[in-house]
Amino acid sequence: MLIKRCLPRPILSLILMLVWIMLSDVITYGSVIMGALLGIAIPLMTQRFWDAQPVVKKPLLLLRYTLRVMVDILLANLEVAWLIARPWRRPRPAFVEYPLTLKRDFSITLLASTISLTPGTISANLRLDGRSLLIHVLDTDDEQAVIDEIYNRYERPLMEIYE
Amino acid sequence: MAWLDKAWLDTALEALTAFFLVAGALITFISSFGMVHLRDFYLRMHGPAKATTLGVGLILVACTLYFVLIERTFHIQLLLVTIFLLITAPISAHLLAKVALHQKLPSDTSTTGAPSELREEDVAQEPDTPHPEDPGSGQRP
């Protein structure tokens, strides 16, 4: 009971402690104790802001998703760099309304972050009703293709992982 | 293995490090170039999003290579920099976009799609009756 109250988010506490030790770059008694103190204090102070975190249902799929996003960031970056470096061809920007099928705040946040990280698309606004996401696309002539690609590449895996 | 003597290896490793460093710098340069020649706020936002992912990423790879291969030390902070950047960059981009939409910054005429956030009839007008906390705003010349 006491442990539950002092450590409301044990995994977060552990991560905070590890990050602190990594930041100080050496494992000494001092850094471990300081990390443990931060791991206890920060979750207690920020507890009110945390929503319930969904459980990862398929960890392997999450790993594959992460790798895919990394590769996409690399490829799409080169594509956008090439697009900018050619001043004679104007990009065709577009606002696209993306209909969300994800329900939980956490997975929507992950999807919006992924969209912003893969260059060429930026998630501009999550509508108040949480049903659609406004995306600004740097260069497209087919909005439906953008929506389909995001759905197949990112949203469906996220749904399988978390919902 | 005579061809694998130390001097040759060192040169090769340095060349590899330099390659990543120059590639990262090039990507960062192109995205800053985009800031100059793209035509509206929403387009210009794409530049920094790129510089922080691939540009900084490549420079960090160069850093890691340099410290691991040449200095023979490993600093895990470089990995942390990448993780923190990947977490924070999309959030700041999202907030910038939200503010731009809220201020109804004009988008380029070639932009397709008209989100309800940018429609004209929603533009805030100067109120007819002065705001109670700012009585002067109604009679401004």
Order of helices and strands of chain A: HHHHEHEEH
Distance between the termini of chain A: 30 Å
Counted beta strands of chain A: 3
Question: What spatial form of chain B do the alpha-carbon principal axes imply?
Answer: elongated
The overall pLDDT of chain B, averaged over residues, is: 77
GO molecular function (chain B): sodium:proton antiporter activity
Keywords (chain B): Membrane, Transmembrane, Transmembrane helix
Region (Disordered) (chain B): 106-141
Protein name (chain B): Multisubunit potassium/proton antiporter PhaG subunit
Looking at this protein, list some descriptive labels:
A: 163 residues, mainly alpha, 3-stranded antiparallel beta sheet, 3 strands, B: 141 residues, 4 helices, 0% strand, disordered C terminus
What is this structure's SSE topology?
The complex is a heterodimer of chains A (163) and B (141).
Chain A: H1 2-6, H2 10-24, H3 29-46, H4 59-85, E1 94-99, H5 105-117, E2 121-126, E3 132-137, H6 143-162
Helix pairs in contact in A: 2-3, 4-6, 5-6
Chain B: H1 6-37, H2 41-44, H3 46-70, H4 77-102
Helix pairs in contact in B: 1-3, 3-4
Describe this structure in words.
The complex is a heterodimer of chains A (163) and B (141). Chain A has 163 residues and is mainly alpha-helical. Chain A folds into two domains: 2-49, no CATH class; 59-162, no CATH class. Chain A has six helices and three strands, in the order H-H-H-H-E-H-E-E-H. Chain A has helices at residues 2-6, 10-24, 29-46, 59-85, 105-117, 143-162, and strands at residues 94-99, 121-126, 132-137. Chain A has a three-stranded antiparallel beta sheet with strand order 1-3-2. In chain A, helix 2 (10-24) packs across helix 3 and helix 5 packs across helix 6. The two termini of chain A are 30 Å apart. Chain B has 141 residues and is an all-alpha fold. Chain B has a domain at 7-103. Helix content of chain B is 62%, strand content 0%. Chain B has helices spanning 6-37, 41-44, 46-70, 77-102. Chain B is elongated. The N and C termini of chain B lie far apart (86 Å). Mean pLDDT of chain B is 77; it is low at 137-141. At the A-B interface, helix 2, helix 4, strand 1, helix 5 and strand 2 of A face helix 1, helix 3 and helix 4 of B.
